[in-house]
Amino acid sequence: MPEKITVPFVDLKHQYLSLKKEINSAVLSVMEDTTFVGGAPVTSFENNFAATCGVKYCIGVGNGTDALYIILKSLGITAGDEVITVANSWISTSETISQCGAKPVFVDIEADYFTIDVNKIEEKITSKTKAIIPVHLYGQMAEIDKIAALCKKHNLFLIEDCAQSHLAEYKAIKAGTTGIASAFSFYPGKNLGAYGDAGAITTNDDLLATRMRMFANHGALIKHQHQIEGINSRLDTIQAAILNLKLPHLQKWNKQRLKNALLYNQLLADVSEITTPKINPASKHIFHLYVIRAEKRNELMDYLTKKGIQTQIHYPIILPLLPAYNYLNHKAEEFSVAASYQDSILSLPMFPELTEEQIQLVVETIKAFYK
Ligand SMILES: *Cc1c(COP(=O)(O)O)cnc(C)c1O
Prior knowledge:
By secondary structure, the chain is an alpha/beta fold. The protein folds into 2 domains: 13-107 and 114-248, Aspartate Aminotransferase, domain 2 (3-Layer(aba) Sandwich), CATH 3.40.640.10; 250-370, Aspartate Aminotransferase, domain 1 (Alpha-Beta Complex), CATH 3.90.1150. Helix content is 37%, strand content 14%. The protein is built from 12 helices and 13 strands. The strands form 3 sheets. Strands 1-9-8-5-4-2-3 form a 7-stranded mixed sheet, sandwiched between helices. It has a 3-stranded antiparallel sheet with strand order 7-6-11, with no helix packed on it. The structure holds pyridoxal-5'-phosphate.
């Protein structure tokens, strides 16, 4: 164990302190108002987030995983269907496909940007394929224009997993605006983080918006008028009040993350054992995570931990190789890029308030390790 943490992986306290007065009073006003489910803060956040993303509708839900599940269910994804997604992601992306009764079909990642390899999608499309879920991983969007074209050609739904890409852009296309619907997470550590679980769906589709809102609320838009069976997954009122306060700061925080990433890139450029993350020239990368590839990754990680620098791995095991998917009998060779990266990727500390000194310390410690 280290003496003390010198550079935390994330620092949520810092951001809270910078908005403490406003956040405390917003939370208290929900208490005073006693509208604990729904109410003005939820509607207001939904409207603000839709406007910020540039879409017609935002539907607040319980979390990002539910957002994906609600989209898939509302599109009628069911047993016998296949949904294509990417091998390197958080399990929400694929478990929600399974929970609809459908089969997740994994595609390898592209070598430079860690997102779905568009050139390997078409070979996975069958007569059962209903949808594609690209993940805008680490804060950088997948090649959404090409994926949208494939979906159009094969008549598939495009669903964006935007849990790591709030306000990211690709060729001036904003995350969460291209697919029939998109899932956002406001898990505390995400670029826009609540103080508990929270999520949202964005869409421009009127009918689907209504259906999703209904499904998320027991299948009823009006109390006791259940048109269908649904689930209970609503954006918590206290979380909405907090998110409303944080939303106007998101652009600035994203820019600070990018600035931090560029400094890391610059300072790590001459470390031959490290490959720094590449930014697609067409991308506005929001660096949810700063992920390097490192020689002797595990030893480096241990060394950094001993020096009080927290790191993580996103993700140590690619989805198709997790025990949960043993039944699909996948082999690492099927996902050669993603599988080869899982032993070298390392996520360094990344949050808006990270200081130049902290970044320098991380880099110096990495250099000391390789010496
Ligand atoms: C965080 C995350 C989710 C799930 O969001 P929760 O709010 O934690 O349920 C889904 N997909 C990806 C890629 C994520 O990073």
